[in-house]
Design goal:
The protein has a domain of 88 residues. The chain contains 9 helices and no strands. Helix 3 packs antiparallel against helix 4 and helix 3 packs parallel to helix 5. The protein starts with a helix and ends with a helix.
């Protein structure tokens, strides 16, 4: 255990403080994103009375618009600067996300999904550039790996309490309908529901 702590302290000291603050921000941001998506599917099926395949198409639209947003974000970062693009992306994507809750029809909701997907990804290239500025060239590969681990830690951190708590019944329904769950998860759902 002491060796693990010593290794963790060594890794921590190899990177600047701003890098670790950035990682905390990434964790919080992803935690919020991971909170949205499981309930997003349930909200859509109940409000618009659509099937999970249509929800999957909406997720695909969100992803494709995110790719367009990343391309647009690279050009905007070069012209407007990193800080401006990051702040604009955060503000505009959070404000436009509110539109999802107020969309009265599926067509309007789909249009809002395109806008949110685009705006939420515009800041990506600026974030990558900031990390490149924070780290020396020999630390960038490992630094981006650390960011990816932090990014992925947000999902299980949130998933377990929701899965075992009040959201368990909903998660089981989503898993069964989409077919994306492992057998162990669906077996647990069958036993507890």
């Amino acid at each position: 255990m002491n060796a693990l702590l010593a290794k963790g302290k060594k890794v921590y000291n190899e990177y600047p403080r701003a890098f670790w603050i950035y990682n905390i921000i990434v964790f919080i941001d992803r935690l919020g994103g991971f909170m949205l998506y499981p309930f997003f599917a349930l909200y859509l099926t109940q409000k618009f009375h659509i099937g999970m395949s249509t929800v999957g198409i909406l997720f695909a639209v969100f992803s494709v618009s995110g790719m367009a947003g990343s391309a647009l974000g690279g050009a905007l970062t070069d012209r407007m600067g990193r800080k401006t693009v990051i702040i604009a992306s955060l503000l505009l994507s959070s404000l436009s996300s509110l539109g999802m809750g107020f969309a009265p029809t599926l067509a309007i909701f789909t249009a809002v999904v395109v806008v949110v997907g685009t705006l939420s990804s515009i800041g990506g290239p600026a974030h990558e550039a900031v990390v490149a500025d924070l780290l020396p060239p020999e630390k960038r590969t490992e630094g981006y790996g650390i960011i990816r681990v932090i990014f992925n830690l947000a999902c299980p951190f949130l998933y377990h309490p929701l899965h075992r708590g009040c959201g368990h019944q909903y998660y089981c329904g989503v898993y069964r309908r989409t077919g994306i769950a492992r057998n162990k998860t669906t077996d647990t759902c069958r036993r507890q529901t």
